[in-house]
């Protein structure tokens, strides 16, 4: 199929999409019109003192008080020469602000854009004593800080928090009639309060490991998932990581069990694993029965399975603050992972399956990091849930976070906000679940019993099973083709349109009144902000978030919010959609639930799993999905979520890219049985939403036809029909899980195969270029082949042939197996990947000293008859076994 078979595109382009804010809008006033300002301070009461509007990103300087509305306020009426107030923020100590010393007049600053984290204020001038007040995000002024006089003004240190403004008032103790303020500077300084109690480790440090080259159910996006997280961190963070065979289970493992946790994972502040999650019975550390784990591909250090028992009482006793597991079902035994905590603040993961997405880590990091005057960092906990929502959809989505105490949920990453002191290890923990309360309740498709007398398709990747009734029933659908859809023109998103929406919210809901508006630092979102309330509109497609951050603060465990019923929530949701103004007549309510927090849960001792807990609801949630011409849609881009907090206050309204589409032709669906045969051969390369769970056997329980809609910010010019497969999947350990898998029903996914050109069964010498060949087959348009750096996920080449010289790597990690990834993308943006693995080493050198001798012989003998990953342990020839053949190879290369 080519684009020429589709209906002419010109008519589609000619049709203009409705405005982003077509419903319930008003014409903005002159002060609300689109105006761009320089990032300068504004005098209160001047003509410029109106809600700030700009379409250009504005980055703040070192002084966190700058870019403010500033003025002189007096309880005696208007102040003469009030314009001199600007001098306090002009970065010139020769110009001054004069104030009466009697305390009748204050210098006041109100920040433009987002509230800012501050804990130190320096005041230059003749001011020797003053009252300092801060404006909190709920609009109240309060006394703040301890004032210390210096030879040239004051230094004030106060509690770190997000503030909207600062007020400085002389306290009347000066011996003169007036005082002068030359400059005012605000900072946010952080010192890890627990650094003195650690043997080592302090500062901003990120550590990651990822695995793609699993022998069964290989993954395609975990390298990008882990490395792109690091790319989003500020430049003062150190980044260290390992992938594929260089990623080791022992790096997370307690030292008493033979691990090196304190030298790797626990030596860093933020830690992230991206790969498969599964269940293992192969590990007897602390828990002797079946237990959840994250899975590696290298079995020689020490094995492939990192379980909760391996880390018992060891995470956080050095430097680790936050650990994320981007892997399926890791938190199904959260009470066991809680027993790994010994100073770590949060452990994050998934109660259900997750998809093999490349941007989960990136979105997680971007939410945690401030990027400009209109952006603001979010806590670690909220950022994890945000990334889950933006990369997944309701059917299989339950992200989960646990912490030693409830207060850990208020942590920001270093440099972005407050961080709690390391918690004391005790017998209980707190759990936040971004889904339902029930521990056994899973949204979406439930695992089904084995089908009797199924039709089977067996291949290299998996066994596909489907009952005769399901297969025959789908054949009876008798639809030979399905409608293709083109995207209509995306809405215009700028400061003016965002102002219209914020004004609507103010008039109808009392939110976002007098909001400042501008883009984030990367110009991806247009943000309107007023205190804790904000609107974020994605500039490429008009996806909208309305957020009241005060609803996300972790409440006292004894406080139980009074939530509205789902019936009341449905009525309020209709009102919210009307205010937002995006036409959503095709929305369908697909799920409603409550979000829960569980506190004082007992940690699991050996053989003692989940006990009773104190639980309470925090928000009422509704989830809507889109239908197109009566057909279902899947994917994160077709969803709208509404959350209500205490007494029905709007906590969040998130409407994804509800883009307008128009029919653009008829496409024929692929026949189902040949497609099932292809799945059996190629496995997860075909699924749009490949999950991070090994899939050895896939039973198809039901089939639908619908469309996949990508997440916000990703262009999608065309919608092709997809098969939605409700499946029961079994991994290598025989565990059955209900999942919903989506596959393109009109176009085959591109194929790719990669291998080293020489087909070398031995090893390449260190520093010797290794050349690879990729063969690709695209079923739609031209294929684009790119080569991916095995360490950091960056694109390092393109084309069918590529030569690469592998780096020496960490001298403390003897890794002879090296891998490289090739990706192919067709003109629809569908991506498939394959990995080639080679040995890079002096032949016979297994201890990593680039020579062959007695130490290598001893390694083989120590690992005699041990099976594991190729070219690891005592395996010299790459067959995965240490034995006589390896011994002979060492002897043949002796003293080389």
Q: What can you see in these coordinates?
A:
By secondary structure, the chain is mainly beta. The chain contains eleven helices and 45 strands. The strands form six sheets. The protein has a 21-stranded mixed beta sheet that branches. Strands 1, 2, 3, 4, 5, 6, 7, 8, 9 and 10 form a ten-stranded mixed beta sheet that branches. It has a five-stranded mixed beta sheet with strand order 39-45-44-41-42, with no helix packed on it. Strand 26 (533-538) and strand 27 (544-548) form a beta hairpin. Residues 1-37 and 436-440 have low confidence and may be disordered.
List keywords for this structure.
single chain, ten-stranded mixed β-sheet, 12% helix, disordered N terminus, 11 helices, 896 residues, 21-stranded mixed β-sheet, mainly beta
Global outline: globular
Biggest β-sheet: count, sense, barrel?
Answer: 21 strands, mixed
Give the proportion of residues in helices: 10-25%
Structural class: mainly beta
Strand content: 25-35%
Distance between the termini: 57 Å
Please sum up the structure shown.
By secondary structure, this protein is mainly β.
Please specify the SSE layout and strand pairing.
Layout: H1 10-14, E1 42-43, E2 68-74, E3 97-100, E4 105-111, E5 116-125, E6 130-136, E7 141-143, E8 146-150, E9 153-170, E10 178-187, E11 205-210, H2 222-232, E12 238-243, E13 270-274, E14 276-280, E15 291-295, E16 305-307, E17 322-326, H3 334-338, E18 346-350, H4 360-368, H5 380-391, E19 399-403, E20 428-433, E21 455-458, E22 463-466, H6 468-475, E23 481-487, H7 495-509, E24 516-519, E25 525-530, E26 533-538, E27 544-548, H8 566-580, E28 587-602, E29 614-628, E30 631-634, E31 639-644, E32 650-655, E33 661-668, H9 672-682, E34 697-708, E35 718-719, E36 721-730, E37 736-744, E38 751-756, E39 763-764, E40 770-777, E41 784-788, E42 795-798, E43 801-804, E44 817-825, E45 831-840, H10 854-862, H11 884-892
Parallel strand pairs: 1-2, 11-12, 11-13, 13-17, 17-18, 22-34, 30-34, 39-45
Antiparallel strand pairs: 2-4, 3-10, 4-9, 5-9, 5-10, 6-7, 6-9, 8-9, 14-15, 15-16, 18-19, 19-20, 20-28, 21-22, 23-33, 23-35, 24-25, 25-26, 26-27, 27-32, 28-29, 29-30, 29-31, 31-32, 34-36, 36-37, 38-40, 40-43, 41-42, 41-44, 44-45
Helix pairs in contact: 2-4, 4-5, 10-11
């Amino acid at each position: 199929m080519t684009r020429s078979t589709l209906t002419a595109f010109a008519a589609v382009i000619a049709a203009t999409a409705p405005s982003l804010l077509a419903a319930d809008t008003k014409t903005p006033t002159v002060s609300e019109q689109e105006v761009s300002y320089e990032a300068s301070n504004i005098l209160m009461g001047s003509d410029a003192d109106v809600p700030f509007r700009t379409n250009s990103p504005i980055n703040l300087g070192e002084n966190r008080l700058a870019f403010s509305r500033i003025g002189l306020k007096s309880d005696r009426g208007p102040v003469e020469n009030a314009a001199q107030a600007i001098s306090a923020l002009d970065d010139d100590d020769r110009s001054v602000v004069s104030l009466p010393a009697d305390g009748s007049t204050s210098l006041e600053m109100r920040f433009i854009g987002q509230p800012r984290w501050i804990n130190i204020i320096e005041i230059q001038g003749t001011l020797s004593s003053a009252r300092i007040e801060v404006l909190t995000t709920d609009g109240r002024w309060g006394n703040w800080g301890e004032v210390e006089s210096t030879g040239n003004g004051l230094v004030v240190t106060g509690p770190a928090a997000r503030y909207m403004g600062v007020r400085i008032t002389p306290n009347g103790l000066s011996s003169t009639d007036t005082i002068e303020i030359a400059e005012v500077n605000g900072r946010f300084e952080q010192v890890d309060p627990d650094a003195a109690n650690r043997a080592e480790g302090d500062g901003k440090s990120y550590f990651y490991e990822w695995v793609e080259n699993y022998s069964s159910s290989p993954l395609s996006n975990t390298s990008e998932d882990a490395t792109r997280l690091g790319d989003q961190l500020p430049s003062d963070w150190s980044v260290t990581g390992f992938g594929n065979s260089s990623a080791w289970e022992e790096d997370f493992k307690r030292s008493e069990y033979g691990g090196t946790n304190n030298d790797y994972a626990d030596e860093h502040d933020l830690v992230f694993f991206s790969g498969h999650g599964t269940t293992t019975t192969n590990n007897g550390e602390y828990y002797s029965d079946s237990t959840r784990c994250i899975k590696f591909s290298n079995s020689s250090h020490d094995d492939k399975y990192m379980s909760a028992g391996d880390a018992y009482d060891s995470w956080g006793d050095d430097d680790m603050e936050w650990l994320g597991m981007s892997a399926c079902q890791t938190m199904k035994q959260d009470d066991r992972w809680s027993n790994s905590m010994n100073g770590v603040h949060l452990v994050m993961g998934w109660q259900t399956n997750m998809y093999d997405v490349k941007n989960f880590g990136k979105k997680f990091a971007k939410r945690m990091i401030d990027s400009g005057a209109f952006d603001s960092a979010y806590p670690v906990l909220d950022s994890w849930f945000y990334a889950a929502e933006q990369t997944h959809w309701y059917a299989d989505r339950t992200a989960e976070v646990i912490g030693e105490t409830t207060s850990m949920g208020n942590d920001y990453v270093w440099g972005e906000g407050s961080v709690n002191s390391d918690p004391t290890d005790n017998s209980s923990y707190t759990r936040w679940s971004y889904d339902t309360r029930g521990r056994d309740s899973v949204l979406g498709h439930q695992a089904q019993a084995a089908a009797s007398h199924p039709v089977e398709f067996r291949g290299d990747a998996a066994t596909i099973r489907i009952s005769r009734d399901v297969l025959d029933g789908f054949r009876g659908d008798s639809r030979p083709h399905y409608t293709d859809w083109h995207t209509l023109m995306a809405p215009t998103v700028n400061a003016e349109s965002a102002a219209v929406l914020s004004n609507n919210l103010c008039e109808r809901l009392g939110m976002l009144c007098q909001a400042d508006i501008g883009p984030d630092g990367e110009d991806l979102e247009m943000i309107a902000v007023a205190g804790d309330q904000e609107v974020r509109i994605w500039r490429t497609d008009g996806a909208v978030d309305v957020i009241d951050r005060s609803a996300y603060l972790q409440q006292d465990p004894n406080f139980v919010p009074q939530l509205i019923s789902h019936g009341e929530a449905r009525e309020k949701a209709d009102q919210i959609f009307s205010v937002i103004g995006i036409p959503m007549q095709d929305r369908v309510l697909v799920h409603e639930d409550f979000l829960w927090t569980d506190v004082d849960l007992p940690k699991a001792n050996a053989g003692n799993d989940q006990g009773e807990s104190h639980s309470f609801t925090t928000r009422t949630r509704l989830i809507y999905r889109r239908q197109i011409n009566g057909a279902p849609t899947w994917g994160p881009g077709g969803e709208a979520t509404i959350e209500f907090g205490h007494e029905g206050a709007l906590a969040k309204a998130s409407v994804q890219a509800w883009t307008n589409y128009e029919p653009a032709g008829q496409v024929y669906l692929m026949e189902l049985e040949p497609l099932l045969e292809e799945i059996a051969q190629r496995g997860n390369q075909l699924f749009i939403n490949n999950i991070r769970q090994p899939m050895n056997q896939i039973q198809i329980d039901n089939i639908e036809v619908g469309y996949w809609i990508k997440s916000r910010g990703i262009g999608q010019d065309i919608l092709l029909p997809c098969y939605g497969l409700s499946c029961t999947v079994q991994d290598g350990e025989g565990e059955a899980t209900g999942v919903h898998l989506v596959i393109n029903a009109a176009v085959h996914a591109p194929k790719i195969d990669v291998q080293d050109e020489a087909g070398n069964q031995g090893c390449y010498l260190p520093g010797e270029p290794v050349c690879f060949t990729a063969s690709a087959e695209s079923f739609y348009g031209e294929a684009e082949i790119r080569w991916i750096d095995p360490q950091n996920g960056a694109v390092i080449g393109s084309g069918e042939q590529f030569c690469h010289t592998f780096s020496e790597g960490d001298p403390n990690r003897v890794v002879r197996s090296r891998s490289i990834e090739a990706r192919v993308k067709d003109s629809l943006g569908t991506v498939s990947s394959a990995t080639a693995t080679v040995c890079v080493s002096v032949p016979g050198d297994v201890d990593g000293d680039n020579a062959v001798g007695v130490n290598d012989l001893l390694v083989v003998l120590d690992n005699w008859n041990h099976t594991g990953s190729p070219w690891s342990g005592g395996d010299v020839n790459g067959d995965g076994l240490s034995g006589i053949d390896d011994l002979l190879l060492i002897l043949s290369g002796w003293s080389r």
